[in-house]
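Help needed: design a sequence for this.
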């Protein structure tokens, strides 16, 4: 789990990933140089978090969940409050 978390943090820090909240969850979009990393990480999430519904394509992923899972996804993938001073979503 810790290694996966570090990989997500590295991908966010690269600036190659954007996120947007959608009904039921979140959409992640990778720039061309980050698409492979996003695909690998989403596959790891699939193995770990079977309560999430995954829809993926070339350089994007939509992660959704029912009920309280939506808020869990938001907490996992949306910026922390301190990031909102820089313009909200990455």
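Sure. Designed sequence:
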């Amino acid at each position: 789990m810790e290694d996966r978390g570090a990989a997500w943090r590295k991908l966010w820090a690269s600036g190659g990933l954007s996120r947007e909240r959608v009904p039921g969850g979140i959409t992640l979009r990778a720039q061309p140089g980050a698409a492979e990393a996003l695909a690998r990480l989403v596959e790891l999430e699939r193995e770990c978090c079977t309560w999430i519904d995954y829809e993926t394509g070339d350089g994007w992923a939509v992660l959704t969940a029912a009920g309280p899972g939506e808020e869990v996804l938001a907490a996992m993938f949306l910026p922390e409050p301190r990031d909102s001073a820089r313009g909200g979503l990455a």
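Residues 2-80 form a domain with the Gyrase A; domain 2 fold (CATH 3.30.1360.40).
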